[in-house]
Amino acid sequence: MGIDAVFASRLQFAWVIGWHILLPAFTVGMASFIALLEGLNLATGREIYFRVSTFWIKIFSVAFGMGVVTGIVMPFQFGTNWSRYADATANVLSPLFAYEGLTAFFLEAAFLGILLFGRSLVPRWAHFLAALLVALGTLFSSFWILSANSWMQTPAGYEVIDGRFFPKEWLHVVFNPSFPFRLAHTVTAFYITTSFVVLGVGAFLMKRGSAFAEGRVMVSMALWLLTALVPLQGFLGDAHGLNTREHQPAKLAAIEARWETGRGVPLTLFAIPDDKNETNHFAIEVPRLGSLILTHELDGEVRGLKAFPRDERPPTLLPFFAFRVMVGIAVLMLGIVAAGGWLRWRRKLDNPSFLTLSQWCMPLGFVAVIAGWIVTEVGRQPWTVYGLLRTTQSVSPSLTTLNVVMSFAGYAAVYLIIYPAGLLLMMKIVRKGPAAAHDDAIEAGRPVAPVQAAPPLAGANKVGDGALK
Amino acid sequence: MSSLVAMQVFDFVPIWTLIVGMAVFLYVLLDGFDLGVGMLYGLAPDTSTRNTIMNSIAPIWDGNETWLVMGGLGLLAAFPLAFAIIIPAVYFPILVMLLALVFRGVAFEFRFRDAERKTFWDHAFCYGSVIATFAQGTVLGAFLQGFKVTGRTFSGTSFDFLTPFSLMTGTALIFGYSLLGSGWLVLKTEGEIQAAARRHGKKCLIGTMIAIVLVSLWTPYMSAQIATRWFSWPNMLFLAPVPILTAIVSVVTWRSFSGRTEAIPFIGGILLFVLAYLGIGISIFPMIVPGQFSLWEAASSASTQAFLLVGTLVLLPVILMYTGWSYWVFRGKVRSSAGYH
């Protein structure tokens, strides 16, 4: 495929959403983790949870700020590059997008302020409540945006009039067939991603020794969470796969690079899929395992790509390899969870090699999230609304290739500046460690509230600061 | 099914016109003054002044900016045809605006936390504000001059927006937002910073008034329909209060910048924006894509509008109340960085 306005628009969308998704992948899990820490502090009275929470709130605020500004870009993409998609689907999808925005705004307006800079203004239980509501808010946002995404994969509850989609039954629109699986699979992925970041940062602090106790709490909690979440994700991923087989068989065939329909099909571990010649090169296969995994039966039927017209098949290369990256990372994650469990049992969680390994594994969740997203979005091609609206019919007709290449260059340049800058900033906060978390008076670029508020509150701030130490 | 019948009968377009109109105006007003503050930030002589100016909007800017998403999503949800025609037509202004806003937004975070690169993010903050404002002004100009439409799609090119008129409205908005920003700084600061804001404010007011006059003469010249709306009898009589009030408010605002009052410059700036917004509304109503589609023609289905209205009516008032409360919490004068150590 040459570079045309459609392809360039797809690249641009992939670019802006790919960078954006890294932030919710971290903040959704982190919001819940902070709420958990604050709850543990209230329940046990142990101050260490409080210190760990204060430390992570600072990092959370940077990530959340970046999430807000890169999120503002997203809805406008539907207008600038995908205006025919917007015109065709708005009657069904726009309320879901709008509810996502409203929920995010609601949470930000009402509770984020208290979480970020209200530490000394409200009692601890109220701060816990704010943390809990922010966490709930991020989950509601995930709910709506994933509902919209799922509807594009498995549309339901609609009717088509004059080439446009109209709502018939909202309950079916929102709870479309792939939505429950996608929601569970994605939110669990976000939680795992956050846990690996916490594990890595905790390992760093333990190794450095300056905040050993805080680091140990992080490593220990992250490992407990991962012990539950990683195996759970295995089951959820499997269930999501069965759902894909039922509703998007062409996507499943692309993921497995399966060309012929058959029973008792092998599992292809590795291959170079060749879309043009409808075959795989250098294939390494395990007999019958494909049917067993995909259908849970030794001779279950799996449909091959040749069962679909050429112009209704997704490209195979990206879904095939991205899926293998995702599953490979899952296996690696299981290994780390097992190693961590064994070391904990032997009371050797401070093993330096394990801590170093944990540090190196910090990006694993992010890579898996991006890989999974590539599987599901590229696997949906050549459609924006699966089986109904083609990607080529979705793009804004006024755009030339040069237009989109220019805008893509702009997004590329800006994101390549702000993401490294943001990462460096967060690494700096980590290096300063939990001890420094109380001293810095500015959070999220906000001066601590009382500076600008009425004088009586300024006194309250000083008292609060004292109480923290 | 009776509810479905009710939906067919009930016209949700007026209430959605109000909601989207309000969201867009709140965005213009709120992000308008903090973009204005961002532009004036570039004129600040020293670090202490810059810190004070930044502090005056630090707690509220992100809330302000979120109204852009509400306006955009509101337009998509309630008037999708307008969204699908207008946004691709202003492809590059939207692109430039978004990139500038991203830069400017992270500058808030990075400038405070990243001491070594202070100068870079200082520039990012100021130039980001100028560029975003200019881009928004050209969007307004492009919107007023209208779009080439075939069927349900924009059929012009991505550079149709670029005309003398849209360049003029882009420049005009720089003065307009800076006027709001000056008013805000007069309200929130004191001493030399306030005196400087008063001086800048007067210049911006002159620029804003020239812009209002230019748009008021240029738009009826461009569109016979707008000319008829304003200059036919008896419309002229009913609509006369708009220009008359604008003249009065501008004189009062001018004098307040020289006097000792601290709230009037900001309030005057807001009123000028209210009047200008009203003027534009009067010019184009009931069209949402000028010359092409009315609000009713561009509206989404009644079921869509009803489904979103339920949650909006619950969430929006709370958001508005909280926004008001947070402005109340941060009332009073800001001081420089010395205050928060």
Structural class of chain B: mainly alpha
Q: Helical proportion of chain B?
A: over 70%
Briefly note the structural class of the backbone of chain A. Answer: mainly alpha
Helical content class of chain A: 55-70%
Q: What's the number of extended β-strand segments of chain B?
A: 4
**Biggest beta sheet summary of chain A:** 2 strands, antiparallel
Shape of chain A: globular
Strand order of the largest sheet of chain A: 1-2
Number of helices of chain B: 15
Radius of gyration of chain B: 21 Å
Largest sheet of chain B: 2 strands, antiparallel
Radius of gyration of chain A: 24 Å
* Oligomeric organization of the protein chains: heterodimer
Question: Could you name the ranges of chain B where pLDDT drops below 50 across 5 or more consecutive residues?
Answer: none
Q: What general outline of chain B do the C-alpha atoms trace?
A: globular
Describe, in plain words, how this protein is organized in 3D.
The complex is a heterodimer of chains A (469) and B (341). By secondary structure, chain A is mainly alpha-helical. Chain A has a domain at 5-178 and 380-468. In chain A, 69% of the residues lie in helices and 7% in strands. In chain A, the strands form 4 sheets. A two-stranded antiparallel sheet of chain A has the order 1-2. The radius of gyration of chain A is 24 Å and the shape is globular. The model of chain A is unreliable at 439-469 (pLDDT under 50). Chain B has one domain (12-331). Chain B contains 15 helices and 4 strands. In chain B, helix 7 packs across helix 8 and helix 9 crosses helix 10 (224-231). Chains A and B meet through helix 2, helix 3 and helix 13 of A and helix 4, helix 5, helix 6, strand 2 and helix 15 of B.
List the topology elements.
The complex is a heterodimer of chains A (469) and B (341).
Chain A: H1 5-44, H2 47-80, H3 83-117, H4 124-153, E1 158-161, E2 164-167, H5 170-174, H6 179-208, H7 212-247, H8 249-255, E3 262-263, E4 267-274, E5 279-286, H9 289-295, E6 301-302, H10 317-345, H11 352-360, H12 364-378, E7 383-385, E8 389-390, H13 401-432, H14 455-468
Antiparallel strand pairs in A: 1-2, 3-6, 4-5, 7-8
Helix pairs in contact in A: 1-2, 1-4, 1-6, 1-12, 1-13, 2-3, 2-7, 2-13, 3-4, 4-6, 6-7, 6-11, 6-12, 7-8, 7-10, 10-12
Chain B: H1 2-9, H2 13-41, H3 47-57, H4 61-78, H5 80-89, H6 91-113, H7 118-145, E1 149-150, E2 153-154, H8 164-188, H9 191-222, H10 224-231, H11 235-239, H12 241-258, H13 264-284, E3 287-289, E4 293-294, H14 295-298, H15 302-329
Antiparallel strand pairs in B: 1-2, 3-4
Helix pairs in contact in B: 2-3, 2-4, 2-7, 2-8, 4-5, 6-7, 7-8, 8-9, 8-13, 9-10, 9-12, 12-13
